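note to self — DONT lose this again. spent like an hour looking for the file last time. sequence + predicted structure for the chain T wanted, 277 res
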Amino acid sequence: MDSFRRDGLTFDVRDAGPEDGEAVVLLHGFPQDSRAWDRFAPALHQHGLRTLAPDQRGYSPMARPRGRQHYRLRETVGDVLALLDAAGLQDAHVVGHDWGGIVGWALGAWHPDRVRTLTALSVPHPAAIATALVTSDQGLRSTYVGVFQLPLLPERLLLAGNGATLRRALRHGGLPDDVVDHYVARMQEPGALSSALGWYRALPLGVRDPVGTVRVPTLHVWSTGDAFLGRTATEATAQHVDAPYRLEILDGVPHWIPELAADDVADLVTAHVRTAG
């Protein structure tokens, strides 16, 4: 499959690997798209796994509704359920990075029957983040989230000078130039950046939708070079998982784990998937 539909929106999907392999859904974050998994997915295919990597809501050109209410976590989770349904899958392994990790945590809490295993890259459980915001340096690390709530200004800042600010931030994070160029070009598409920022702007609308306890086998991978997500929330995440849980820490790797530590993380994920039998 190369696409699926939900509520009049069309989502692009990269479906690759053995057709009869166990399915692994790969969920990217901001400001990535399914290309984030270009180095990661082939390693899973070599182990007989099938991957489904959608360009999520706001990133697929035909799935960019206007208005922050369309980017609530309940909606982005619903998109993944629709993907599973369209692929004829009762359940799948889920790997999410950044915002994709948040969606993964919610899937593991709200729909454990649809998730065989969860792997969260970089991002801790949302409840652990919320606590860390007032007990550690996480508040300072997350200052940009408040800026992204503002109307229009983030778009102007990030895309000024042909995307120079966004380009500089991604390069500073260690991403290679070709990947940076791709992500910046995607965010320059009509409505793309505003739609991607909709995920942040919808945060105040989700206060009545707590993620809750995750009840599926969980692998959490965090890196010490992550400028956005700190150790306090990472180490507290185990409190929010009522299932086998494992934390792996990558030394010195920046936030962009799928692109910069693909081989190591693919090995971890493959082993984690195998534990589900």
